[in-house]
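May I ask for a single protein's sequence together with how it folds?
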Amino acid sequence: MSAAAHKLFRGPCDFMLGVVAMDGLPPTNTPEVAFAGRSNVGKSSLINALTGRKALARTSNTPGRTRELNFFDLGGVLRLVDLPGYGYARASRTAVNAWTGLTRDYLRGRPNLRRVCVLIDSRHGLKPVDIETMGILDEAAVTYQIVMTKIDKIKPTQAAATQDAILATLKTHPAAFPDVLMTSSEKGEGIEKMREVLAAITRG
């Protein structure tokens, strides 16, 4: 791991706040990387793995647990933003629509948002709701990167095939970063590479 990545992810890392409305967002003086994905895709687990903490971001086996935009501060250099999962939530339709609206407003109007990591469960690949989210990001001209999660749950050949299929799809999405990261929060696979990628964003 580079010195920059080591300093970033081994230094101070704190939960800042949970936001339920746009007027509650923190100042835009620090670069942000947001984590988006279907409910239960592993966003909180990935944030914990990246920061080397076991419970920085709360994880749950219940889809739809994250109901706000949760901000985590890495030493005042970078913020990680855990977005509500899409595609499923055990809650009222009114509440789901409110979370969806807040997330879209954040993605479309945050000037210091450097990249969105769109997490895809490697066992299932891209789903229509993922493609819809990618379209929103394309329209907003927000750079995003696909991150496959839970690659320890499938065979390497299956993971490679899913990665190739995603890469082919990305060719038609102008805001997509032309690379797909493969990770396992449980086994630590791909975590150091992702730390390097995120550390480079702070220097960009």
